[in-house]
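Exercise: predict the fold of this chain.
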Amino acid sequence: MKKHSLLALPLALVALPTAAHAAEPEKVTFEHAGDRYVYTVKMVGDHKIIDGTETRSGKRFTLRVSDKRVTGTVGDSQVRFSRSAVVPLAETEVVSDR
């Protein structure tokens, strides 16, 4: 189950719309499979940097997203996968903290 949730997190976050163009990164909250995630997205060069926390466990994650790859950490685990592996979550509700 842990491997499933570790993989679902990066896939879900990369598929979500972002406010990466804002000067101050906007906090975004979403829930998936009973877990709540809070994260920000900022642009660094040609890459999106997604930085956040799974609120129940307090597990931190940082993902670096390019046109073709996603790399980073989820908790103590390294993640790396192709952007083509990302499947949008149709029933995920995204809530902005504006």
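Check your answer against the key: DSSP finds one helix and seven strands in the chain.
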